Amino acid sequence: xxxxxxxxxxxxxxxxxxxxxxxxxxxxxxxxxxxxxxxxxxxxxxxxxxxxxxxxxxxxxxxxxxxxxxxxxxxxxxxxxxxxxxxxxxxxxxxxxxxxxxxxxxxxxxxxxxxxxxxxxxxxxxxxxxxxxxxxxxxxxxxxxxxxxxxxxxxxxxxxxxxxxxxxxxxxxxxxxxxxxxxxxxxxxxxxxxxxxxxxxxxxxxxxxxxxxxxxxxxxxxxxxxxxxxxxxxxxxxxxxxxxxxxxxxxxxxxxxxxxxxxxxxxxxxxxxxxxxxxxxxxxxxxxxxxxxxxxxxxxxxxxxxxxxxxxxxxxxxxxxxxxxxxxxxxxxxxxxxxxxxxxxxxxxxxxxxxxxxxxxxxxxxxxxxxxxxxxxxxxxxxxxxxxxxxxxxxxxxxxxxxxxxxxxxxxxxxxxxxxxxxxxxxxxxxxxxxxxxxxxxxx
Length: 444
Hints:
The chain is an alpha/beta fold. It has helices spanning 55-60, 79-91, 109-117, 134-149, 167-170, 192-202, 220-224, 227-230, 278-283, 312-326, 346-368, 373-379, 399-407, 420-423, 426-430; strands spanning 17-19, 30-37, 42-46, 64-66, 123-128, 156-160, 172-178, 184-190, 208-213, 245-246, 253-254, 260-267, 285-288, 300-305, 308-311, 393-395, 416-418. The chain folds into three domains: 17-91, no CATH class; 109-288, Rossmann fold (3-Layer(aba) Sandwich), CATH 3.40.50.300; 293-438, no CATH class. The chain is 31% helix and 18% strand. It has a five-stranded parallel beta sheet with strand order 6-9-12-5-13, with helices on both faces. The longest helix has 23 residues, at 346-368. It is elongated and about 110 Å long. The model is unreliable at 1-32, 38-63, 93-118 and 437-444 (pLDDT under 50). Pfam families: AAA_5.
């Protein structure tokens, strides 16, 4: 029988025995074997693993010894001695329990271990307005999984979808490379999701996570391709109704392990939830993440006097109430825009608040109401402020504006301009939620 030598490990991949778990739903062979290299005066043991050159095999199966310790007086190693040494070496390996082994409640270890860590669906999309902490929530889940399992950070992958992201990036595709001779060649390379699935398959009792940020910005049907079926919980590998497909580039059989969790995030301000592909909606659970002003309950920013600080929670609640009336809930403002203030000393907060308003909040409102900036001014309460210096957006035409429009033969219309004075006026912020807070010495 011809030998089959693995190029990476140097092992003869023809095993002595193929072992099949008696409770397996399909015949996945575990291998037992040994390879001796007497010319190199060493012996190599080849023990348990799903595949000969798998990462799991490489991590536990290679052990080298001084051949002289096994040789007889003539320098020869008998097969009995080799087998005895191999069996002894195997007893030193960590105990391996099949993920198919049944527990008392008739569930497999794979299922029980996975569900204990994460008692929620395999596929979840967190959606909501910008700045509500969707990505932060997923990061929190990953951190808990890492601490509970005392694991390194290689059990998850993080990608961001965008219009140019493709199936070849996510699953597999033909990519250029450079050989040792400096020649350009093209070969099939695994994408980030396929790599994670292969890794999860080697450690089936531990959860692995695929995080997809801004999932709605990519062409989801094109990126997932045929895998849109395989990610469904009932179609996962080792499940009773599990399916596999033949990948188009490598022609390999592929399935998605049951211990791979997929978490996506999407901003509803970018794209409505109703526009999401129906096939995707059916395979994911959707969890709304709304603005939570209560998280800012104790956040106060010093105002013009110590007796009247700026109440960030009330300010955000009032802006979002008006946004829901003038636009919709999907375009409200998330609490995360202001959480950075919590990390600052009180005397530094107002300057940062002014910058947040100038660089983030006002531009966001101008984008929402680009065709009618009066509404942006209403969200900021400027229509209720009697002091002109407290208005973030000043509406109305100056005499010079009216003169220019009149000479051009155009009708006079109201303009809307930013007011730099308001950014540095604490009463302008208080005036968003309190009319009296905008009352100043100056009157418009």
